[in-house]
Protein 1
Amino acid sequence: MREVTDTPEMEIGSWATTRGVALPFLLWLEGYTTQRVSLQMMNDLVYDENSPSYFQPNLSDGYLDELDRLFDRICKSPNDREKVIETKIEEVEGRLPDHEPAKGSQQREEYIELQKYIGVLRVLHDIAEVRYHIKKDPDEIEGYPPVVVYPPDPDRFSDNPDKYKQIEQRILEKERRAQFDKSTREFIRTMENPSRHKGRRIDVTDLIVDGEEFYQDLHHLQDLERDEITEELDDLIQPYVQVAESGVTDPHTGYDLHDIWRYFRYTWRTPYNTVPGRNINFLIRDAARELHPVMGIASIASSMMNLKRRDQYLGWRLDSVEEGLKREKQVNMVEHQLPKEERTPDQQTVEKPVTNYLETEQEWEERSKKHCQFIRSAVENSIEESIQNIRHDDFLTRFDDLTERDFKKATETAFTRLKQLEGMGTYVFKGKPHILQEDEDSENFENVFDPSEFELRESDLRDLDIEDTDPDSYDKTTLDTIGVSKSDLEALVLADVDEERREYDHQEFEQRLQQAFPSDIELDTFSEVPIDLEATKLDSFGPLELEEIEDRVAYLGAVIKFRLKSETALFIKKRAHTLQKLLRDREFFLNHSDIKDDREFIEAALESEAGRRALRTALKETKKRRVGAGMMNIQVCGAIPPYSHLLGGKLVAMALTGPEIINTYREKYAGYESKIASAMKGAPVVKQNELVFLDTTGLYKVGSAQYDRVRVPAPNGQIEYEDIGETSGYGSVQFGAKTREQLATVTELLEDRKAVRGRFGEGVAPKMRQIRHGMENLGLDGDLLKHESPRVIYAVPLSEEFRDYLFGLVDSPEYYWSMDDTAQAQQSIYDHWKYRWVSKRVQRDQTLDGIKAFDPIEDLSIGHEIDFRNHSISDFF
């Protein structure tokens, strides 16, 4: 490694010969005119030379020339590249007019190009900040500017995990700082400013244990035996889990429980972001101390829809089906001596693969047979079930030639009309863009719609009665808002009750109901409305009580709400698109239903493209029904010091596997209506509320000391955090909030709409889609989303039947825990943590010294971070 100085003669192309090295941000050293880069800092920028991406955006010639000159400046001052780009962004943003120019004007075209250029600069700044290597070389690189960028080498810190973590923390810190906006700073100040509760002066730091005080309680344990320590700990530390629910007051401090959780969440290294879907936050507190201080915090949220290694582990991918058919084996490279005539002085041996089978042929046959039986049982009816849960009655009324028979037989008419409906919905959802004519080139338009792609004519798009209404706007829909009063409905119900027999004539009511409702709202027969969560039918009901009438009326209101959602442009296109796929792939299962042998059936599916496609679709539909209901992602999990010195993070991880967490989930989501599934069906869809599986990722690629070796003994088995692989290393962590906002602005200007509006049901990972879509509009490579910071993935089954449940084969899983006495079972987790981890930890001088040195105000409170007067500008970049 050579010593590098910042000299005017440097060019990026000349640095390409320094294998795997690029330069970090400028080290400002007062009094020095030459900035030197240490060997350690140079090693931070080892890059992956096999994954180049061209950085040649779609800009006007003038801005491309300006960008090319900027790369020259970076080339001459590689140490200072981030500062150079920041300065350029400030200068270019200063050119923006005070007001957005009018549409159609020449000034607007210039304005759009300027906004695009700002977007390019922000992307460039962010990838430079996360250690991308930038190379400019006109002699080797085609295109303009002649620049390629290389992501960091994912293995650059394989021998130095501590250094890797330092770099990752630096990347995360920028996003974390960005979250401290005005309202957040006011919230933190409010929590840290003293208030009075029950005559006592209280602030949030009173929920943090003082290190010296804690040390005094623990240091005498060093002289005891392990069993004695555990017994003493029962009085000194008494953990319990508390749901951090908004609107619930903490009796010890008077604070809102969610505010307590939120405050401590802001102390984390990672930024605090809310996610759509299911979510439960927890506090882990210590009942042994005054005010019950916080030991740790946790949060479980809806799992990601797509996570490759997790889905392979669960069996939701086609490659995992194929893997299950193979005989388990282990291949080792063994050194063999070469024949005498082939030996040379330099080579006497050669390595050859040796295969060792891990199961006998009989074991393999039995296992693969069960595997095929399991898969077929789960997927055979999956597609048909999904079809039944997608509304299409309104589609039949749109076309005279479309009938129920077309859906049952999957006719060409069904596919044609569904394709057209998808196109109509897409056209409206895209904001009714310019309709492409036969003699026009789509490349000449930023936002264009080609009707021929959906077998439509321009005339088919005139006077459409489809609206691009936000489906969430119907969440407040009530019977009153559509002109039907609840009292009228109750009167209708009661009018059909035979006063003597107290029986209900649902057919008579059905006729009255159709007369009462607006003509444009079509309903299933009211006899299908369930009385309660057990889906009891009205026609089997005897005595009728007013409360049950209200339940039926409320359900009817929900039916109307989801019918209206299903008729928005978003869900018309989603329903039509999904039905095409399902009808197509259902054919394989219908045509091969006569195959009795399960293995033969699965092998037949894997041998043809149609079969593979059908199996892939069925697996995906199976996953969609359970990924948002039977499993959750551990989004937050960690200890608050000084408990972190006692491996409190492991306590939190262990506590999340307990029966109290499962019961909390069950109670919160009992009767919970799935927003997307309900809008697709046009009626309430209540998903299951069993929690059989948790997944999570470590913060770093190198593994997590918090999750490693976490095992929880339970009556029916052992719960374990199992390392199942890594994420792919793609994501949005390298792009800051300002970059995301700029990319969204560019897309909205170019397409005259918001391509990603963050609507629930629009699609997964809106932040990622927003960035990808924006970069496409700038002509930048989507591989720039490759941050090369993969994370370790952990799987945590909570039931031996977790796969059966997640494949829909059982509805009432047997848990590892006995659910009869959840309090005692949860306590056993805390007892195990004390014996397994704390009893050994408190015997270490290093642990006790760390506890003693901890100061809540100096080491954890975050008020000083939000007081900008105490920081220089560089602290926030």
Note: The chain has a mean pLDDT of 81.
Protein 2
Amino acid sequence: MNIVNKVTIRHLKENKRRTLVTIIGVIISVAMITAVATLGLSFLDLNQRQTIENTGEWHYSYNDLNEEQYQAVKDHDKTESIALMNELGFAPLEGEGSKPYVYVHQLNKAGMDQFQVKLQDGRLPKKPNEVVLSEVLLQSGYDKEIGDTIHLEVGKRYSLSEEMAGEGPLNQNTSASVAEGELEEELRNTEEYTFTVVGTIEEPLWDYSWAPGYSMLSYIDEDILATEENVTVFVKSNDISTSLFDAIPVFAKNQNIDQNQIEFNYNLLEAYVVSPNEGAMTTVFGLIAIIIVIIMIGSVALIYNAFAISVSERSRYLGMLSSIGATKRQKRNSVFFEGIIISLISIPLGVGAGLLGIGITLYFVNRILSEAQFDVDLQLIASFGSIGIAVVISFITIMISAYIPAIRASKVTAIDAIRQSKDIKLTKKKVKANPLVRKIFGYEAEIALKNLKRNKKRYNVTVLSLIVSIVLFLSVGYFSNTMTKSFELQSNQLNYDIAASSSTGYGGVEELKQVMDNLQGLQEVNNTIMYQKMNMSGIVKEEMAGEPITSLENASDYISDQGVQYFMQFIALDDKALQDYAEENGISYSDIDEGEGILINHVSYPDDNQGKYVETEVLDAEVGDSVIAAQENYDEETGEVSFERVSQIDIAGLADHFPMGIFYPSPDTLFFVVSEKTLANIDEQTDYQPDGMTLYIQTEDPVSTQEHIEELEVASELNIANQYFYEQQDRQMTLILSIFVYGFITLITLISVANIFNTISTSVALRRREFATMKSIGMTPKAFRKMIQFESVFYGLKSLLYGLPISIGVMYLIYNQTQNTFSYSFSIPWINIAIAILAVFVIVSVAMLYSISKIKDDNIIETLRQENI
């Protein structure tokens, strides 16, 4: 070890406080980088396991393969394992449970693994004449045990309704069709099967809440392909990459497999960050790159401050080295050597702190998720690769942070060190302050301003720290909000839990009102609403037509002499519900007259042409504008379509969200919320018929609420659709995203505060001799505090002057990156900006006062003698 390095180590030991502050700063930065890398992997792992739990572990599938094609798929270099599935059909289930059928299908051994079949008792089937029963089937009252023999008439389901006449057989995804308490479907092509029960399994993933049958699972092997044509082959691939979307269709074509026989498991592939949508991948990786850069910049600023202040404080020591012959290279390398020493101590501790912090966080998060009935827990995933990347990024960050101070250190001469001329500029022009500052705020403000101008280097380091903290807080806050918004746009999450309607399709109003009134007393029920909808056509003036419809490729098809044609949907609420909805959207209920309605103008929808999720205004409309509700007439002789005016609907208000229910926004659809009386008047003038009345329910316990409804006498006359299980994954992902969004913002906020405290406290400690000099010439404690307060204000104003524009620029960069996949307008988060402005002044003031409190009792003479901190 050369003499310069030995002196550097000795200097680090003598300045224990500054060295410790630097090490802590680096530990925080390394912990943050490690935590983000680990959290990203853990979140991806959760999403993958959750998707596998819901869809099975397969990446693409083929339908109806022959033996030769199957063998080619099996031997394909992208195939890891193959699941075979054959649906035998449905058998009637008399008297037991709430479902009318037993659903019988077969899987091979790999299929049982890939589709997460979980054995509860006995063993899994190994022969085609063996079955296992779903636990839910047994709970419904099905009286069979392991070892029993079962005889079943198994067939295919066909609907008897006029709407579905001529369509093919129904599967397990299609709920049973019931009208007036009777099944509106039948089993055809039935065959007799005899099975031996060999075990029971947990409820499988294909037994949805709306599924018509309870599961019985049998065994299948490859030999069935010689006789059975309806087998589906599910492939688990060994190459999970975007190359699948090109390679598999080419492979299938070479094997004479039709493209319609291929299906990709997009849900699972997207969980591995693999998608055919290049815009989506660009968005994901672009946002990841931006957040990594933001974190690195924050880390660089945090560490750079420590090195910059270190070099400023060591200028005399560097000058001494220069006076005894140290070269520029040796002085520069002394700072890099300090960075290496700090790295060797801080990086292992930072990695450990990051892993420990995430581990503790996941422990508490999993408790929250468990209380929210989450199926899969978050696991700490820390690969050697991710930790290695974190270590490399951390080391590069430290070296980047040390680079400028190292260059500065190499330029320190013996004369500069003695004069301290690199840090303090005392020319009259440089420190001149505006006379108005003294007249308005007093001499303390003038001294504060001159102090900052004198200590330009330290002042800029502190301001830079504040700027980076502002940018970090606002950028990460905007990033988190963007991620939440993007997830909400693409998830299409429903805003209700249970829907109830008449089993006949129409009528049932009194029964639904009874249910609605009965639910009012249930504590878990948050909200209910009941209404009818009616669809018809609408005509809008051409100048009112919104950009969504005018930008369509076939926009001219919607334009006629009468105006621009839209599809219209009326949502008719009773007076109380309409008043509540109007108030939610800031609209006065008293302003809504008969013949008027609230236009839901702000909508979001997936745009297949652009390959984006779009959030936009449907019409260029204002309150007071009107739309013509029209009936579409088709002339069979000429083939022409005309629109007959039915009623004029005036816009009483513009809304930005839907009432409870299910809606499908699009560029050419208008949604109007109207009173029941207005809809009745329109109904009288047209041949269109309103849909049946539907009751929508929001509840904290959907299962319990459904059971309560089914206990009512009128329940037999209603169709009840519980969306809880269907929506559960989206709700759980929303909860997880919310937890980490707020957790991430909290982490960044704490790091920003630590950054400010670190910089200001170190800066104040380095100015002890300066403050002691002021006190020695008669500055009172009151004047001293006032001067410090003005310094805090100047710090805050300067940092905000630069920090806010930079933050808005970074926000726009993040916004612009999302526009590859989403389309919505850019908006500045004024609330976050207000919080940042307030926080800057509060934190700076507190940091300054805290730092000053540490030195207020310093002995003036001893402080003037002091060399180290």
Note: The chain is about 50% helix and 20% strand.
Protein 3
Amino acid sequence: MITIKDMKLTLNEIKLVCSFESAQEVISFLEKKGFWNDDNVWRYLGDTENNYSSIGNQQSHPVSSIVEKVVNAFDAILMNAGKEMGIDLYNVLDPAKTKENILKYIQECNSTAPDIKKVKEDISRLVAISLTGATHPDNPNVTIADRGEGQTPDSLPDTILSLGKSNKIRIPIVQGKHNMGGSGVAKFTELQVIVTRKNPALINSTNPRDNQWAFTVIRRTPPTGNMRSSVVEYLAPIAADSNPKSGSVLGFEADTFAIMPNATTLCGTEVEYGTFIKLFEYEVGAHKTSILLDNGLGHAIKMRLPKMAVPVRFCEFREFRAQGAKNVFADGLLDYFADSRQGDLEEGFPTHTSMTVHGEMLTCSTYVFKRTTLSRFLRGTGVIFSLNGQTHAMLDKAIYSRKRLKLNEIKDDTLTIVDCSHLTNAAIEKLFMNSRDRLVDSPFTEEVKKELENYLANEAGLKRLNEARIQEMIKNSMADNKPLADALKKVVKNTEVLNQLLDLGIDIPGDEGTGSGINEGEGSGAEKFVGKETPTFFRFYGQQDEYVLQGKNQQGKKSRIKFETDANNDLFSREGSDWKCQLLLLQSDSDFIMLDHTLNPKDGNALLSFNLPSFYKENDVVKCRFDVKSEAADETFSNLFELTIVMPYESSGGGGGGGSTGNTGGTGLGNAPSKSKLKLPNMSTVTKDDWEQYGFNAKRVLKIIDSTESLTFVFNIDNTVLKSEVSSARQSLKDLTKNKFIYGMTMLGLAAYSLVKEDNESSKGFNSLEDVEKICEAYAPFIIPTLNMLNSITGIGD
């Protein structure tokens, strides 16, 4: 039997397809219409059969692909408003100001509310991300709907259904550029439904199809037989009989159509134009719970959108036992922190800094939250690289565990956001892949990561908080275990090989000069600093304006110079700020070299860190100028200084001490701290009653607490292995068995600890302290049998 294809779908049929909650329902409908099995009516996405080579190279994470669709919705809203305002979007001289004016226009058109929260609530109805369909363990349907400019049936193949066309590359106010990022969702779903209509006010055409709504379905056919990769196609049946696989998209007439959600229904609000994209049975990974929960899709989207162009709606229309509101307002990550989680921040945070790498400026903001309040939300993310409000790459929280940082006790609660919006386009290409979800492996990227680590390693507030958490954790158990630690020290001292090994030691950053020299009296009752958005001074610490600083720089060492200012901490990082800083190495009156540097402003002080070029020799005098400037404020603060190159000072060897070296003179000028040797760790033991505090369970043996101040090994003496060994030992040997276990694990832990990577990610060794703890857990069953076997061989009794 031959089915006759009906090219005109009724309005009710379109509504029916939008309401389907399984891919099979859509397929069955298209089969009845005669479309599904007719290969001629399916047109290749991007008009390229081998389109999956581009689609498959997009975002590697399903949430990042959804975010690309959300960002496309933002772009559509901005372009719609800009065109309504009569702006030539291809010839914008001041993108930041133009975007600001467009956002004001959007606000005026969508809200008259006097309070900013209600304004955001009103504007958020322009974009909605909704979940319908199945709950865990099955995949939900994800719908992204917006009231942006929309598309016509005939423009759709050149926009949403295209790959690589330069639709947005010359529009500076939008995020999209390569015109293929939105295709990445096809990796995580086999079926999409699209309904869209262009804003009638923007149509200047007599073509009746330009006023129609467009309807199509995108399908991904996985490889079978001789197919080497998937193929992505969309439904385009009009004139496909005469132009196989090159037909046009279906259109239908309607003054309004329900593509936006209301309080209870996915398609509950009718609009005149906009775009509706429904992703069926989307492989959303670990985010199958409610979109509104801390571990749900909504918060994962926020993590990838530090700053949203406009607020959005998160809608959850699936049924859960604890069902609250179904349709809620949501903002970007930074606004979420400021508006909803301010009370969860640790005191003194966020901290801010600016970095200059290869002449390119980046700003950083570090947020530390009270223990466990946001750990489910952060889900192991430690660093976000953001560009124009969208996350382009992430680093794992393991960065805080590196030996140079030693911030293990705050790593679960810490997030650093690196804003890359000041980068030139050339630098952006060196830092980010076009997929906008990962970093490029380039020298520039390595330098950025190195400077980021320098900032984190020298941020005094992070170190103080980490150490405070350590002391809080171990203060009760340390005293009880002092005899155990003393006994181990005696064993090591009387064992020649161990004594020599530990005397040689492993280099670790010492505790001298660990602070940044900024606000060291914080919390001592000092008056709270109140800064200014537009500073009136920025000068060397303790000096007058125009003072020329003279000091010393140890050859090959990093230098630090302290400044004082009345600027806010977020002078460089706050939204809309055009304040910049630059460090110039002056070679003549008109010739200079820009130096990479980091500037860390904190409550009226600012620490400048930098390295001079390696070609300078002893007794050379290097002239530099540090500028802080703003074109909008028409202000520049310039500070001249001269550094005489001296040979590196010898370390005192035993650690402790003298603070930063060099000509301090009250300016805070000095070099990076020297190093000290590793000492035996402090030891602490805990029982099952305290497992939750330390993250222990029956199998975990050891928790290593490492900081610039101390190294502590915390042993779980109720772990399964040790309890079994102690239980089977004679009564008189039970304590000895426990001590032998702890001594043996300490030696093993120290050996493994010495192999944890320093700051070079490509170096050999363990990646983190967690790796050391896992090694100890794996070897735990062998410790006592090995020691007993060795005793037996040497003839030494128990």
Note: Residues 343 and 369 are 9 Å apart (CA to CA).
